[in-house]
Specification:
Distance between the termini: 7 Å
Helix content: 40-55%
Shape: globular
Largest sheet: 6 strands, parallel
Strand content: 15-25%
Mean pLDDT: 95
């Protein structure tokens, strides 16, 4: 294996977090007098951060006059709901273990708030993930390359030995902007057809397939 560093997206790639996001979103929507969203609707709205999730869940979008109040209510609810129903996808822990045993350094880069990213990674992945970076001041959200490049800097690893793994069009654009090879997965929030339409070159259907793809680089 020539790759020494693997950067992962979190939601929809390593972690099935849609149930907790749905619970918090619907709690916030109810407080603002809005109808609830289904799990499928929440999953389709994931991928570009928490604020975007709420904007896509409100009838009036980001311009809805209830947006600020709804987003505040979501953030309050998510403090206790982030672990609700969340779990690594089947085979993910084995994938991380296999990569770690081969000497790869692993990191997570996400558009979720930095504190939540770190808490979820500690809870579900422990020391398997060396660096976890979310949305925070001074680090622009994906698809800007900032979070990926910051992760490489914190790992002390060069971009020439790194690859990016994600489940959405945002991840494909992030890898492109960071000049990293992108390995897409279709078990998360986007179908293979959507990924292909956005330029995905390598698409894995299982963590085992992903390990083989990463090993073949």
């Amino acid at each position: 294996m020539t790759l020494q560093t693997i950067l992962f997206d979190l939601d929809g790639t390593l972690l099935d977090s849609a149930p907790g996001l749905m619970t918090s979103t619907n709690t916030a929507l109810a407080r603002c007098g809005c109808p609830p969203r289904s799990l499928a609707q929440i999953t389709a709205a994931m991928g570009n951060g928490m604020a975007d999730l709420i904007a896509r869940s409100l009838p009036g979008g980001a311009e809805d006059p209830r947006f600020a109040a709804c987003f505040d209510a979501f953030q309050e609810a998510y403090q206790s709901d982030m672990f609700t129903g969340s779990a690594p996808y089947p085979g993910i822990l084995e994938l991380l273990e296999a990569l770690g045993s081969r000497g790869c350094r692993l990191a997570v880069v996400s558009n979720k708030r930095d504190g939540a990213v770190k808490a979820l990674c500690r809870q579900f992945f422990g020391e398997r993930i060396a660096v976890a970076i979310g949305e925070r001041p001074g680090v622009s959200r994906k698809p800007a390359p900032d979070s990926a490049l910051t992760a490489l800097q914190e790992l002390g690893m060069p971009a020439q030995t790194a690859a990016y793994v994600g489940d959405s069009e945002v991840d494909i654009a992030t890898a492109r902007n960071a000049h990293l090879p992108c390995f897409s997965v279709d078990w998360g929030t986007r179908t293979r057809e959507v990924l292909e339409a956005h330029g995905a070159v390598s698409i894995s259907h299982t963590p085992e397939e992903l390990l083989r793809a990463l090993s073949g680089v």
